[in-house]
Amino acid sequence: MGKKVLTAVIILTVVILFKNVQADLLSIYEIQYTTDPNGMSPQNGNIVDCAGGIVTHIRSGGRPRLVIQDPNHSDGWSAVQVKGWTSDAFNNIVIGDWISLTNVLVEENKGTTFLQYQTENDPNLTIVSRDNSIPRPLVVKIDEISAPIEGIDAWIVPDQTAEKYESMMIKVTNVHVSNTGYGKAFDNYALMSNNDPNLVCWASDYMNADKEKGLIYHSIVEIDQDFCGVAGILEQYTGDSDGIFYDYYQLLTTNTKAFTIEQIADLDGDCDVDFADFSIFVEHWLEGK
After folding, report:
1. Residue 281 maps to a domain
2. Nearest CA to 115 among 43, 214, 13?
3. Tens of pLDDT along 79-94?
4. What is the CATH number of the domain that holds 222?
5. What predicted TM-score, i.e. pTM, was given to this entire model?
6. Alpha carbon distance 47, 102 (integer Å)
7. Residues 124 and 157 both lie in one domain
8. Largest CA distance in the chain
């Protein structure tokens, strides 16, 4: 066999092997997408290889946590949380890294899908690229992530329509803090629509890196505080405490930038920028000249 032919065979073999490896990698979408009425991942309990996504948030501590999102599926089922079982599991990772993972356990834990990075499974994490742009929060309607309904010894969401946004960066607009002290840990607060008092969702600051130590909420969160927008990572929590069962979604803010009090160029005060604002601008064009 000639050298040129041998070289071509080797290259072709490497390409085929690489494509086979790539084919075995599951996207976050393939891990998260489900038709299960309870929102359970079809990969629950399996050890998988994941093509991964961009790191949007890092929570350090005894069991560190990464949140990763694939920008190729911006409308849903595109994010997942990764939990390490040792404190140094993600030491070299920074926000904006695109990471992929092998040999991670898919586990439904208290309503949320996690990729468990457990040493006994011989996991591996690869930094595919760095300095990626963080996906912009997807603006969703409040009733898409509705607060749970209070029942007898229970707080339960009416359905699982919010499941497709789990762990994604999302945002609700034109809301105010109507009350505090909700949820299993009493650390949730209600965000009520300024346009419709029947539309309410829950938020929490327990993953907010800018929250002061000793405080339950970020210092900007007060009853009746208006926000043009509140952004964060959506997480589901299911469990029970003192005989009360919980099943709810919470919008987890990650830093101070999650809160937008005023919108630049919002001249009519309705928390958006549109032709109505432009009309006001035109009316006052060249005033004082």
Report:
1. no
2. 43
3. 999 999 988 999 999 9
4. 2.40.50.140
5. 0.85
6. 8
7. no
8. 86
